[in-house]
Amino acid sequence: MGVIGIGVGTAKMGRICRDKAGNITDQSTARWDADPAGGSVAIWPMDPEKLEPSGPAEVYGDWDAAAYLRRVVELIHPNRRINIPDLEAMIRAAAKAGEDICTYCPDCNCRDCIVNEWKEDPDDE
Question: Which residue among 21, 33, 84, 91 is least crowded, i.e. fewest CB within 10 A of its CB?
Fold first, then answer.
């Protein structure tokens, strides 16, 4: 793949409503719309000549940067080693060594923190 698109937007899941007899009474398709205030990130392949989408989009929650950035790197196929460290492995190793990396966190929003999840179970690699 030569060109990919990535954007912030709003994802809506499709649905089908049926009556008691099984007949479709209402139907909507899944969609993703570009929206700077949206809560999702989409990645899609693009035709490099036309700069138009050439395949389906993959949609991620905007909070899941590790997943969508990993996918971007997979899609662009860098020819050299990339400089993204394996933070999960580093945090798990620190937790095994008895280090509490959360000491340095100014946010203290542990409920939604992936670092907190990783350090709670350092052997789950």
Answer: 21
Number of other CB atoms surrounding residue 73 within 10 Å? 12
Q: What predicted TM-score, i.e. pTM, was given to this entire model? A: 0.64
Token pair for 71? 């996918």
The angle formed by the CA atoms of residues 121, 123 and 125, to the nearest 5 degrees, is 100
71-108 pLDDT, tens digit each = 998 888 878 877 878 888 888 888 888 888 888 777 77
Residues whose CB is less than 8 angstroms from the CB of residue 69 and which lie 6 or more positions away in sequence, other chains included: 84
Cα atoms in the 13 Å half-sphere on the side-chain side of 43: 19
